Amino acid sequence: MDPVTHALSGLAIHQIGFKRKAALFVLVFSAIAPDLDYITRLWGADVFLRYHRGITHGILALFAFPLIMGIIFRNKGGFFYYYFLSFIAYGSHLFLDLANPHGIRILSPLDWNLYSLDLVFIIDPFIGGGFLLCIIMGRMNKKRAPLIAICIIILIAAYIGGRAHLQSEAEKFLKTEIDANIYRLYPLPLDPLRWWFITKSGNNIEAGAVDLFTRSVYIKNRYRLDKKSPAIVKSKKDRVVQNFLYFSRFPYAEVKREGDRTIVIWRELSFSFLPGERFMVTVIMDKDGEVIESGFKF
């Protein structure tokens, strides 16, 4: 999720009734702390794509970071008190990020695979708005602020659970319309009844949208993987492409010729519903097949 939503989640948890001196700071800071890896953006978009949501979003960090908070603030209310606050706030961040299609390496450093529930979009106004409503209502009615916070947090959890059910129903319907070996469904912004899908059978991939309201399937694009193209194979040695492939779940490459130059374009199909040229790597090679230039568009 976006940093604002994470910060609001920390404020909402604080509203439940944690009132010791540093509780507010520990909760809000811990709720946004996993995104300290944003610093990798300084080394380029592709480096950020590779290392964001890595070690700081794993189980080691989930247990280690609260230790730091507990030690720092132990004289302001007790080690275990602040360890617990930091743990639940840090954990809320990991859960919200796990729920969206960017995914996280939740088992790092034991397992560096990317995991995602694919239930909510990266920015979800229902979740962020719910936390904001919680804070506003709590300020307006301080006596019932803890009850308001608990109720809204439960409603947000129910909303995410409801989306899991809708995703399951969409996948069941999709399987009646398209015969494939692999099915993946991803959330679309602001519409829990429509899901972006990727299906794969052998080297054939289809991408489109499945709509539960109209009970329809729309195929936007069909792709065929080319695993033997010399240009595609050569492009995989490029650093930018390697970082892209480390993140990508459904990568697709196509080759274009422009005079003496060969251009390999890599796309992440799970985000291909986004407008414009997003999550795309362009590799330009000379006539000898050597990489002249490569770049990533986020």
Structure report:
The protein has nine helices and eight strands. It is of the alpha+beta class. It has helices at 3-14, 23-32, 45-51, 59-72, 79-98, 125-140, 145-177, 230-235, 239-247, and strands at residues 182-188, 191-201, 204-211, 216-224, 251-258, 261-268, 280-285, 291-297. It has a four-stranded antiparallel beta sheet with strand order 1-2-3-4. Strands 5-6-7-8 form a four-stranded antiparallel beta sheet. 43% of the residues lie in helices and 21% in strands.
Topology:
Blueprint: H1 3-14, H2 23-32, H3 45-51, H4 59-72, H5 79-98, H6 125-140, H7 145-177, E1 182-188, E2 191-201, E3 204-211, E4 216-224, H8 230-235, H9 239-247, E5 251-258, E6 261-268, E7 280-285, E8 291-297
Antiparallel strand pairs: 1-2, 2-3, 3-4, 5-6, 6-7, 7-8
Helix pairs in contact: 1-2, 1-5, 1-6, 2-5, 3-9, 4-5, 6-7
Q: Nearest-angstrom radius of gyration?
A: 22 Å
Q: How confident is the prediction overall: mean pLDDT?
A: 94
Distance between the termini: 16 Å
Count of beta strands? 8
Order of helices and strands: HHHHHHHEEEEHHEEEE
Give the helix/strand class: alpha+beta
- Arrangement of strands in the largest sheet: 1-2-3-4
> Into how many domains do the coordinates divide?
3
Q: Describe the biggest sheet?
A: 4 strands, antiparallel
Q: Please, how many helices?
A: 9
User: How much of the polypeptide forms β-strand, as a percent range?
Assistant: 15-25%
**Shape category:** globular
Instruction: Please estimate the helix content.
Output: 40-55%
Uncertain spans: none
